[in-house]
Fold this sequence. Notes:
By secondary structure, this protein is an alpha/beta fold. The chain has helices spanning about 10-30, 45-60, 75-90, 105-110, 125-130, 140-150, 170-180, 195-200, 240-245, 260-285; strands at about 5, 35-40, 65-70, 95, 160-165, 185-190, 205-210, 225-230, 250. Helix 6 crosses helix 10.
Amino acid sequence: MNAQVLDGRAVAATILDRVRGEVADFVESFDRVPMLATVLVGDDPASHTYVRMKANRCAKVGMRSRQVRLGSDITTDTLVGHLRQLSADPEVDGILLQHPVPGHLDERAAFEAIDPAKDVDGVTRTSFATMSFGEGGFNSATPGGIMALLDAYDIPLAGKHAVVVGRSAILGRPVGMLLLGRDATVTYCHSRTTDLAEHVARADVLVAAVGRPGLIRGGWIKPGAVVVDAGYADNTGDVEYEAAALRASYLTPVPGGVGPMTIATLLAQTIRAAREHEAARRADPELTTTGSGRE
């Protein structure tokens, strides 16, 4: 068996084409340009690259982006203050705190300073709760991108046994909840799970989200399984790609699988947030912008 590639770049391009049209319609309707604000703390080269990529994608779909760069020596209170200012700014529709932040900062406190109405990266407790209960809100961007990728290939999830290897608050845990919401039976595992190979071998759908290259051996994969590799370290995924490709029915490449879907989901949720903000302003005329945002 040779696995079919789950091409995140191609699917993301389709999503971004749709977002570009939605942004154009929004500008025509409301005479302002949606804005995504990104907050970057420190000088990690990879984080700078990610933020630059997101700014470039914003420009390509016609959105504005505002970059807030802060030194690695700031305090949690200072970071929280910047995020609260962006939350209160009527020109900002979405907020992204590039993570991880330096270790001395309380990342959870920073996430919770983001207004859930602008949490287009889906990192707040409110977003996790509303997503888990299927009550709206914003999906965590990478899990939301994974689900969109599976949908693009018409991969059935109801009744399937999904195994998620990873338990982070912004990837492993939320993607499991999204799969559960689609009627999959979900097992959570992680790098310390006993008999990890046995759990993986029972997965109809496997999501690897640890960030430890080669953690998942290709020979563990159930023949015909769908494998989504969301791990990334040193340009390598969590799954032994070549060996897994001989057993899986579908498999994401690394890079080019999950990564592009994360950015596409982020921007799709930003234009949605912009529309919801305008709906709120119509309902409450006191909520007005400070300018058209066309500069």
